[in-house]
Amino acid sequence: MAAIGVHLGATCACAAVYKDGRADVVANDAGDRVTPAVVAFSESEEVVGLAAKQSRIRNISNTVVKVKQILGRSPGDPQAKKYIAESKCSIIEKNGKLQYEIDNKLINPEDVAKLIFSKMKETAQSALGSDVNDVVVTVPFDFGENQKNALGEAAAAAGFNVMRLIHEPSAALLAYGIGQDSPTGKRSCKHDIRGNPRAMMKLMNSADIAKHSLSTLGSANCFVDSLYDGLDFDCNVSRARFELICSSLFSKCVEAIKKLLQQVGFTADDINKVVLCGGSARIPKLQQLIKDIFPTVELLNSIPPDEVIPIGAAIEAGILLGKENTLLEEDALIECSAKDILLKGVDESGADKYTVLFPSGTPLPARRQHTLHAPGNISSVCLELYESLGKSPMNEEDKFAQIVLQDLDKKEDGLHDILTVLTMKRDGSLHVTCTDQDTGKCEIITVEVAS
């Protein structure tokens, strides 16, 4: 029994295989465990991976990078507009879809992704020595349905049997079994190379190598032969200088973590494990900033951060091989709640109070129970459910369901205790049971997923 897990990132792709009860990342034909997600086009062939990355300086207008950032997005999407502005390849809109224009040919982003998936399939099958096609593909948590569909269709077009799309954070958790300065003596010149795409690409390549080195070394050399007008570029960058340059980006990461804790009503003390995933998680300064937020928490990074997601995907693929009915369409796309699910109540002052029962990103299926206290002098209680993307305050249009308990026994003193049990299935449907603890009266509703 064998299966494959594939992670297509913004800059790199990685494949892992599940066999004999364990998951391992596999190396490509160049011996690298991570493959650049770069595709170069010529009149006669398409080149994927390291060779395409190495040739993009001389083939810049025909080389596609970071296709994941445009995959499944509409022309009016702000992220798509940003990508188009930065792309060295010509991108046009035709029939409401974005396409690359390369050598007078139009190429869909899905076709570029298909070539990368084909490379990953070839890499995995070579390691397994068999034509295994079963795969779990990872997707970013913030991907919409169109982006998920585009990614899944690209993998299927490459010949994969896509058993499931799994969110990248979920895959990372599975991998850990959770949930289941300028140098002296050189001539200094000032040139603005931002208008020279070839020079910029050469500098970006060298900077990327230096960034990787600074994860383990105190300093790194960034050298580019004949960067501009025949002049070489040579700069030694210390880790401290790198951290200063990236401080604003680190701050955004920290703020995102704090915002998430606030949204779900948790404190740092409520967290007992943190999984580091993604290449940037290798950066020591970022690790320290995360540790500062969670001083008593175990940071799980024994698996290389840029390999943990495909390993988790491979483990999920292995799990699915042992189950029936894994190819249902609804199973293939949803395994985390997309929005916050809240229950409306009233606080001691009589003001509306909203309790988050399912924070967005909750792995599915999931079950929650909550006791709602209502005044004892009323004979009916209406429970209202809301969904939100983190905005506040709640509006009436955010309400998606309500359930009413009637004919309750009034109390002179005390409160009605209403036990609410909510079960959200993997397909996103919600089953709600409300029971009056005194009388045992019960109401049940099921909210199906909107088609």
In summary, what is this structure?
The protein has 451 residues and is an alpha+beta fold. It is built from 11 helices and 24 strands. Helix content is 28%, strand content 32%.
Please describe what this structure looks like:
- The chain has helices at about 50-55, 80-85, 110-130, 145-155, 170-175, 195-215, 240-245, 245-265, 285-295, 310-320, 330-335, and strands at about 1-10, 10-20, 20-25, 35, 40, 45-50, 65, 90-95, 95-100, 105, 135-140, 160-165, 220-230, 230-240, 275, 300, 340-345, 350-360, 365-375, 380-390, 400-405, 415-425, 430-435, 440-445.
- With about 450 residues, it is α+β, with helices and mostly antiparallel strands.
- It folds into four domains: about 1-75 and about 110-175 and about 305-330, Nucleotidyltransferase, domain 5 (2-Layer Sandwich), CATH 3.30.420.40; about 195-245, ATPase, substrate binding domain, subdomain 4 (Actin, Chain A, domain 4), CATH 3.90.640; about 245-300, no CATH class; about 340-445, Substrate Binding Domain Of DNAk, Chain A, domain 1.
- Strands 1, 2, 3, 4, 11 and 12 form a six-stranded mixed beta sheet that branches. The protein has a four-stranded antiparallel beta sheet with strand order 18-17-20-21, with no helix packed on it. It has a four-stranded antiparallel beta sheet with strand order 19-22-23-24, with no helix packed on it.
- The chain is elongated and about 90 Å long.
- The two termini are about 35 Å apart.
- The relative contact order is 0.11.
- This is Heat shock protein family A (Hsp70) member 14.
- It holds the Pfam family HSP70.
- Its main location: cytoplasm.
- Belongs to the heat shock protein 70 family.
